[in-house]
Amino acid sequence: MEIWINPACSKCRTAIGLLDAEGAEYTVRRYLEDVPSEDEIRAVLERLGLEPWDITRTQEAVAKELGLKEWARDAGARDRWIAALAEHPRLIQRPIITADDGTAVVGRSDEAVQQALTRSKS
To answer: Active site includes 9?
Structure first.
């Protein structure tokens, strides 16, 4: 299991606390320092079953600078969104937890973190 975090994020700290309380084995990826490539973002989107705009933090200053709210949200725009996430990792929703069964969750709630734990124990 891997968790993509920003240590300054309270939701990330909460998710780490839940994983630790369960004795889970996981790897921490500080994605602002160890920026995921476009291919890694595509892979995690596939695991999440989501599109890039679904995991984009549109309230970030850089999102407003880029005008993301105006970007198309369709197959033709997908690569543009992925490129923006790779270039500006602060836009990536956090934490993202990849479970051992090949799935992933955006762990912003206790329930989502529990899902990742359950999927990794199966």
So the answer is: yes
Percent composition of the chain: helix, strand, coil (DSSP 3-state, to 5): 50, 15, 35
For 71-122, write each residue's pLDDT tens digit. 999 999 999 999 999 999 999 999 999 998 999 999 999 999 999 999 887 6
64 Cβ neighbours under 8 A, 6+ residues apart: none
Coil, strand or helix at 111: helix
Give ∠ CA 74-109-36 in degrees, rounded to 5: 50
What's the pTM value of the predicted model, to 2 decimals? Answer: 0.94
Domain boundaries, the chain: 1-31+94-122, 39-92
Task: Choose, from 2, 9, 100, 101, the residue flagged as catalytic.
Answer: 9
